Fold this protein.
Amino acid sequence: MSSTQHIPPSLGIDFGTTNSSIALARPDGVVELVSFPTAAGTTESFRSVLYLEQRKHAGRAQIKGFTGPAAIEHYLQAEHKGRLIQSLKSYLTSRTLTTTEVFGRRYSIEDLIARILTDLRLNAERQFGEPVRHATIGRPVRFVGADSPEDDDFAVERLSKAFLSAGFESVTFEMEPIAAAYAYESTLDHDELILIGDFGGGTSDFSLLHVGPGVRARGRTAKDLLGNSGLGLAGDSFDARIVRKLVSPALGSDSFERSYAQASDRPANIIPAVPAWIYANLERWHYLSFLKTRNVAEILKSARARAQEPEKIEALINLIEEDLGYQLHQAVQRLKSELSRQESAEFRFRDGSMDIVAEVRRSDFENWIADDLQSIERCVDELLASSSINARNVDRVFLTGGTSFVPAVRRIFEKRFTAERVRTGNEFTSVARGLALRAQELNQGVAASL
């Protein structure tokens, strides 16, 4: 190899809907994760959020941006809330929502994502002590909102543009479940046929493939990957069910306008106080922050004046104006986490205008997400069928991502493959670790050809 030719670091970046992480595979095989500073210490999981606030400097308004843990800390400390934007990855397939206005300035979705990616890159450079310009990037099998391969290609193109805007010179994409397979493979001393289930905030992805030291030694071939499948739902879809059942009714989703009978012997006309689309957007983290617009404010002000229960509409107005999506998200996550460990849990969400307290049984939650669970089951079964693989021939199932903790999700795999064959591990960093190992494999191939 010429001394002028340089093999870049073997870096993997998992830019997730909810959390992101970065890993570096060193020549000795050790994988190092980037640690991000927080007020409480350090974390290897970087929240994929962006907080924008408007400040006055020298008499002029300036927009200041923060990402990750710093975004949440500044948001919580702010007396007058700016805009906390979550789940930006979920917008990538949308051809209609390409820009948004924040404090009178218009931003593309790629610009907002690039702001997060820039800080991820700078953190990696500080820890590793060298420039980061190339990386292997994870992508779901099926992006949120994708109805065709063309939609997925469109999302990859937009994500590539965001990485280039963030200071990267080149990126290579790898399927997230395959990356998780690389992470799992690093723990093996024998070959296996495995099913990988990678559950993110917005997507559930599955891959069926051969892995192990023997596969690495002989060299991977296309035949080692038997199939991929995925769908655009996961943890965020479960969250939406909780919001619909527990939160939206307290904010007026079941409330109606005050109306008068057209005649003394006829019932009053029944008209919803607030358009249903506002509650639909409330259920999705990536849309919630974009309800804070002049148009929505006018709709809700008018609805409050006509509503039979104006106090509920007032609570909805307060949640949107105060940009309380993060607090709502945290309350939902706490409930899901507790229901993963016990048969019942208490949901609590409080702010100045509402106090929601409800006891929730795990069986109720599982009824709420029944349709989503069936979609996951169909996706797994279709993968097995299209690959012509019987479930009993799969040696191991490796589940990663936060939703893999949900007992009803785990049962899907235990029913088909037995509990003894189902494993989990490094639920929030497996993909980044695997991407770094994949980057190392690609770099070794480049080095061998030079």
Summary: Confidence is low (pLDDT under 50) at residues 260-266. The chain has 15 helices and 20 strands. The first strand starts at residue 10 and ends at 15.
